[in-house]
Design a protein that fits this description.
The chain has one domain (9-443): Growth Hormone, Chain: A (Up-down Bundle), CATH 1.20.1250. It is built from 22 helices and no strands. The protein has helices at residues 9-48, 55-71, 73-87, 89-107, 113-116, 119-149, 155-184, 188-194, 196-200, 202-214, 220-227, 235-242, 244-264, 268-273, 282-309, 312-335, 339-355, 360-367, 373-388, 392-403, 407-424, 440-443. Helix 4 (89-107) packs antiparallel against helix 6, helix 4 (89-107) runs antiparallel to helix 10 and helix 15 (282-309) runs antiparallel to helix 16. The chain is globular.
Length: 459
């Protein structure tokens, strides 16, 4: 929390703990839902909803439905950014959480193509779009809730809590699906009904997340915005008129991590490692991805501390260097057919994912001025997801089918990480900057590190 928002230490610490838990559980629930869909797209949707297209095309279509939702993330970000800067961070978080959970549960109830024909994939795509709209607003609200409540010197650590929700959601999703494939509904039972259970379980998590989110107050910065709301222009218009270069660069910072992350979370590695050429069982691969999720979780937590110690930008650089170094070994080790080496591959790759993701909330929040911060953070994140992860599994699958080798996929991942490495090198590390509405003059100045004209707003 900035110096302009004082509170007694015990009350402040108790509030920050509630905020941290609220942002963590909310993003965990959201991404559990999202990753459950991605895994199902790799394992069952091609057979149950796109069978008439054939195995190869059907799998591409199943992966493409992952990407379709990303195209609607910017729409969700536009809406949540506008109303988040107008109505509050907490309000948007509750709306996106409930919407995502309902859409996920309904996916678990859709009949197959064999039962209702072309209506089945249409319903699947429509609900996937709703998931995309929800995800477009979720992260920005969670990031602002965590960082704007935090002490100046601990924003990196506070901002890592919503980031932790992503590997936690993946850990929970892959663990539940591994349980379904290996114990409760192995073989044909999983294809018949077992895959639906993880989707339906999201109903239970919605109630918990909704209760937690309702118990947290909105941020001090938003309360200041409310006082001056009559003087403020439409946040979206100001963002794109005065801050478009910053939005683009911020989006590119996220793109490399998102493209790399969707090799595992988007189902490509799951599908690739279970093919006849490699030969792992679904359960073995899911358990290995669960292990990778745990490493991602730990490295994300560590990156929050590093972001406060060595800076957001330096932590990012470490992460992208690791992603570049492990892009080729990731598939080389999987191709050996050794379960232990697959664990090693996913573990080392996930270290890079964590270090290039944990500092993101703090970096983004500190880049944008207070009155348009929700819009800037949410839209940059959504656009980065479109550029990076939207069709990463589809692109990877197409490259594999076209070239017959994962080397093409690795080159693609290296290219995306290099772009993000360059992008993050363009912005300044702004640790400790006052985030309050009264400090927008400083917030608008000195964003760019090299080669750019100093960034300012002139009203």
């Amino acid at each position: 929390m900035t110096a302009t928002h004082e509170a007694t230490p015990p009350a402040q610490k108790a509030n920050q703990r509630r905020v941290a838990f609220a942002s963590l559980i909310g993003t965990t629930i959201e991404w559990y839902d999202y990753f459950t869909y991605s895994t199902a797209a790799a394992l069952v949707f091609a057979h149950l909803y796109f069978a008439p297209a054939g195995d190869g095309v059907g799998q591409l279509l199943a992966f493409a439905t992952i990407g379709i939702s990303f195209l609607f993330r910017p729409v969700g970000a536009f809406l949540s950014g506008h109303f988040g800067d107008k109505l509050g961070r907490r309000f948007i978080l509750v709306v996106t959480l409930v919407t995502m959970g309902v859409a996920t549960a309904l996916i678990g109830l859709i009949p197959t193509y064999e039962t209702i024909g072309v209506t089945a994939p249409i319903l699947l795509i429509l609900l996937r779009i709703i998931q995309g709209l929800s995800a477009g607003g979720e992260w920005g609200g969670a990031a602002l809730l965590a960082v704007e409540h935090a002490d100046d010197s601990h924003r990196g650590r506070a901002g890592s809590y919503p980031q932790l929700g992503v590997p936690l959601g993946m850990l929970l999703s892959s663990g539940v699906i591994a349980l379904m494939t290996g114990v409760i509904s192995p073989g044909e039972a999983f294809m018949e009904w077992g895959w639906r259970v993880p989707f339906l379980l999201s109903v239970v998590l919605i109630g918990v997340g909704y209760w937690v989110r309702r118990s947290v107050e909105d941020t001090p910065v938003f309360k200041e915005i409310q006082v001056e709301s009559a003087k403020r222009k439409a946040p979206i218009l100001v963002l794109f008129k005065k801050h478009l270069p910053l939005v683009i660069v911020a989006a590119l910072i996220f793109a490399g991590n998102n493209a790399s992350g969707y090799m595992t979370t988007g189902g490509f590695v799951t599908k690739y490692a279970t093919t006849d050429g490699v030969g792992f069982s679904q359960t073995d691969v899911l358990l290995a991805i669960t292990f990778g999720s745990f490493v991602w979780l730990v490295s994300t937590a560590v990156s929050g501390y590093l972001a406060d110690r060595i800076g957001r930008v330096r932590t990012y650089v470490c992460g992208f260097v690791i992603l570049i170094a492990t892009a080729f070994p990731l598939f080389w080790l999987i191709d050996t057919g050794s379960l232990g080496l697959m664990y090693l591959a996913l573990g080392t790759f996930s270290v890079g994912l964590g270090l290039s993701y944990g500092p993101q909330a703090a970096l983004y929040v500190e880049l944008f001025p207070a009155s348009i911060r929700f819009s800037g953070v949410a839209i940059s994140y959504a656009l980065g997801a479109v550029i990076g992860g939207a069709f990463a599994p589809t692109i990877a699958q197409a490259l594999l089918q076209a070239t017959g080798t994962t080397a093409s996929v690795s080159f693609y991942l290296v290219g995306m990480s290099v772009i993000s490495l360059v992008a993050v090198s363009l912005v300044r590390d702004r640790r400790g900057i006052d985030l309050s509405v009264g400090n927008e003059a400083e917030q608008n100045a000195g964003v760019w590190r090299v080669g750019w004209e100093e960034h300012r707003i002139v009203d």
